[in-house]
Amino acid sequence: MFRKSQWEGVGSPADLLNYEIVQEQASALGRMGRALEAALANLRDFDALHPPSNAALADRQARRALVAEAGHALWMFAIQREACGLRNSRALMRDYKVPPDVQQQMGVFPAQPAPGNGA
User: Fold this and answer.
1) Which of 46, 83, 91, 106 has its CA at a distance of 20 to 30 angstroms from the CA of residue 6?
2) pTM of the model
3) How many whole angstroms separate alpha carbon 65 and alpha carbon 67?
4) How far apart are the first and last CA of the chain?
5) Which conformational region is residue 115 in: left (phi greater than 0), alpha (psi within -120 to 50 degrees), or beta?
6) Is the dihedral of CA 101, 65, 109, 97 positive or negative?
7) What does the pLDDT read at residue 8?
8) What is the pLDDT of residue 3?
9) Minimal CA–CA distance to 43: which of 79, 77, 73, 76?
């Protein structure tokens, strides 16, 4: 919270609230960016250890899961960026070196079983 010296110069309670909101947006943007970086690093590490040629079924499934995870992290980060007014997704894809297969998974959610069909 704020100390008395931090209250000085604050125009109104609305200004203070706006300041808090902007701080939280910046914090969330940082968290989402780090999550994307981690997911992309996991995928790069996996690809370095498991070349795609003649990959076993288990390796292909593991990679699909990593791509889906990175796609979800990308979607979360892109949404947070847009909420902060940063709408240039090309720069995002370029700066983070997002592979095309991850870009294609952005915002894709796993199919949910129909009601009454098990699970």
Assistant:
1) 83
2) 0.79
3) 5
4) 45
5) beta
6) negative
7) 62
8) 56
9) 73
Question: DSSP code of 88?
Answer: -
pLDDT tens digits for range 45-75:
999 998 877 788 999 999 999 999 999 999 9
**Residue 21 CA from chain centroid, whole number:** 20
Residue in this structure with the two tokens 């592979």, named with its chain if needed: 99
Distance separating alpha carbons of residues 11 and 16, to the nearest angstrom: 8
Domain ranges (residues) in the chain: 13-105
Side-chain-facing half-sphere of 105: CA atoms under 13 Å: 21
Token readout for 38 is 């981690």
CA distance readout (Å), 33 to 1, 47, 116: 25, 21, 38
Please choose, from the candidates 76, 64, 82, 65, the residue with its C-alpha nearest in 3D space to the C-alpha of residue 106. Answer: 76
Residue spans of alpha helices (H) in 1-119? 4-7, 13-49, 57-83, 89-95, 100-105
Which of 34, 37, 33, 42 has the alpha carbon at shortest distance from 63?
42
Contacts of 68 (CB under 8 A, 6+ apart): 105, 108, 110
